[in-house]
């Protein structure tokens, strides 16, 4: 098996995400990996890469100092499902805080 060595990219490893169906098996830097299901041409319902776009956009805008700590918080979970769950929880907290803020402003 051919192993991916992300250190050969000449990039800061704190800013690299490696997406692959065999990421954990084929990459030497597991902390940078997001494993996705293998693409099958006949599967018309495979939207996993599209589903990852909101997460990737968020990470690009948030610009964490080390992406590996972000990815570690998703370890053992489906990144897409966990990101959606966290986003909903965040929206609920924002709404609750805005309601509390309105009560105090009156």
TrEMBL record:
The lineage of its organism: Eukaryota, Viridiplantae, Streptophyta, Embryophyta, Tracheophyta. It comes from the Eukaryota. Pfam families: NIF (PF03031). Residues 1-59 form the FCP1 homology domain. This is FCP1 homology domain-containing protein.
